[in-house]
Amino acid sequence: MNKLLMAIFALFCSFQLSAEIKLHQLFSDGAIFQRGQAVPIWGWADSGQEIEVSFAGQTKSTKADSDGKWMIKLDSLSASEESRQLSVKSGAESITVKDILVGEVWICSGQSNMDWKLTQLTKPARDPFYNPISEYVKKEIETANDPLFRQIEVKKEVSPDAELKNINGNWLPVAPANSINFTATGYFFARELRKSLNVPVGLIKCAWGGTLVEPWVPMAKYQTNEELKNFYVAEKVAKLDKANKWWTPEKAKELHKKQLLEWEEKKKVAKEKGKKFNQRKPRMLADPAKSNRIPSTLYNGMIAPLVPYAVKGAIWYQGESNAKYQNENYQKHFTALIEGWRTAWKQDRLDFYFCQLAQFRNPVEQPVDNDGWVNVINQQLLTALTVPNTGIAVLNDIGEANDIHPHNKVDAGKRLSLWALAKSYGKKLPAHSGPLYKSSTISGSKIIIDFDHVGSGLMTGKKVLLDPVVEVKEELQHFQIKGADNVWKWATAKIISKNQVEVSHPEISKPVEVRYAWAANAKSANLYNKEGLPASVFKTK
Fold it and tell me: pTM for this one?
């Protein structure tokens, strides 16, 4: 009899196990769904298992496929502040997800300037001049309380080969206890959306400091042309295979032990001689497969698990790490990322707005030709000018010479939001971009530059901390010009019409090219439109 009971109990447990259904972690308490689109809902169950999903008066049914995955698509939803439940049923089992809102959802990705949390901006600045911004952010954290504004953060994961299926993370609303962990750039972007749209806003924070653009590009996109494919093979397959041939945990420990002994000996000698010893203590070499620099490894680990969650678009702040790596190919690889994400989501109108790098390091005194930082800045501009449904927030007036993480994420977020409000939501704004290079004409000893996005006209301006830009009666700065001898000189520039600047130099009678703000730190650059948005770096060739 006991054996019979045990058999029945085992059969019951087996049935219970087979009936288990799971939801993707994005569909957890506090989630925000995208309005105005079909909303995919998915999870896992046993193959062939019937699933019923209900939300906001809609009920959809499906079966798990041969791999155990199931998905339904809710019909387009209207924005709603009402806290509603998502119900998922299979036989006698059910899952209930609570407190779901409907509004606007944006992915926030890139490297540290997107990853940077609000709380990280509250620390004293390296340059005390910027401390008022730290105080502003402190007050924002202390007072912000908005249950209709939420974030879920994707855990940092690498996967060099396979696309991961799920994430770790929870949706949290803006409140003093939670806001400290919000992406600062994304927070100030979304805060403007909340003010203007008056609907719930959700952010999916998916960023990792110090990362290149290449690991965020889908592997499938690398296979679409020979140049990308060759790069992928050289950077991923060759380097990873080579490293894996010698790396083992035992060899890594052995090498680390040897390096430590050498380090300790050098430190001892320096101490005996009364000299300072600044050499960093060696670290053990990590498993090369866990590197976050391998092409596609961050897409596989952090972005692929989000697909196809319904989103409006993405904001992006990255490029610092590419200043010393593949900066000449940044436009190609960044374009591949944008197109690859759109293909993955099957969404051509996945709007994509990004920050141009802010100024960094000491201002230049003489024109420089080859600087990886300005190369990336310029290629970011070219991406915005050539890839549809993108926009660039110019930050060349809010950087910090001594800090790669400028404190002013407030204006960075606001400038991204202007693109979204104008282009994604159709708001009529006086201007949503600073002046962008359009074309040029050589007229004798002068070059005439035409700009787009001039708003109500061009002006020279000045930006101080979080204050609005003010017009100043000063000469335009940081224009450079060259003649046939290819020698760049600081130029004389003046505004001659609503959308034109005239550039010249008394020693150049036949100019061939002009460029503007061409430096890692073009601190004196002061061309704006009258709406207070700065002009981007550009060159006429």
Answer: 0.93
Q: Find where tokens 């993108």 sit.
A: 390
Bridge partners, residue 447, by sequence: 442, 503
Query: Each residue's pLDDT tens digit in the chain (541 positions)?
Result: 455 444 444 444 443 444 589 999 999 999 999 999 999 999 999 999 999 999 999 999 999 999 999 999 999 999 999 999 999 999 999 999 999 999 999 999 999 999 999 999 999 999 999 999 999 999 999 999 999 999 999 999 999 999 999 999 999 999 999 999 999 999 999 999 999 999 999 999 999 999 999 999 999 999 999 999 999 999 987 778 777 888 899 999 999 999 999 999 999 998 898 998 889 999 998 888 899 999 999 999 999 999 999 999 999 999 999 999 999 999 999 999 999 999 999 998 899 999 999 999 999 989 998 899 999 999 999 999 999 999 999 999 999 999 999 999 999 999 999 999 999 999 999 999 999 999 999 999 999 999 999 999 999 999 999 999 999 999 999 999 999 999 999 999 999 999 999 999 999 999 999 999 999 999 999 999 999 999 999 999 9
CA atoms of 517 and 501, how far apart (whole Å): 14
Segment 365-369 long-range contacts (CB within 8 Å, at least 24 positions apart): 367/480, 367/488, 367/489, 367/490, 367/518, 368/518, 368/519, 369/488
The CATH architecture one would assign to domain 101-227+296-428 is 3-Layer(aba) Sandwich (3.40)
Contacts of residue 11, defined as CB under 8 A and 6 or more positions apart, other chains included, come to none
Orientation angle between helical segments 409-419 and 184-197, nearest 10 degrees? 50
CB within 8 Å of 443: residues ≥ 6 apart: none
- Residues with Cβ within 8 Å of residue 189, at least 6 apart in sequence: 106, 108, 315, 413, 414, 416, 417, 420
Distance CA 455, CA 531 (A): 7
Sequence-separated (6 or more) residues with CB below 8 Å from residue 110: 207, 211, 316, 317, 318, 354, 355
Q: Which long-range contacts (CB under 8 A, 24 or more apart) does 269-278 make?
A: none
Q: Which residue has the tokens 């806290």?
A: 83
- CB contact at 8 A, 317 and 355: yes
Distances, alpha carbon 401 to alpha carbons 125, 324, 350, 380, 407, in Å: 12, 18, 34, 20, 12
What strand order describes the sheet that includes 22-23?
22-23, 39-44, 69-74
CB 77, CB 56: distance < 8 Å: yes
For residue 282, which amino acid is it?
A: P
Answer yes or no: are the C-beta atoms of 399 and 525 closer than 8 Å. no
Per-domain boundaries in the chain? 101-227+296-428, 436-539
C-alpha angle 285-291-293 in degrees, rounded to nearest 5: 130
The answer to whether the Cα torsion of 497, 501, 504, 510 is positive or negative is: negative
* Full 3-state SS string of 307-322: CCCCCCEEEEECCCHH
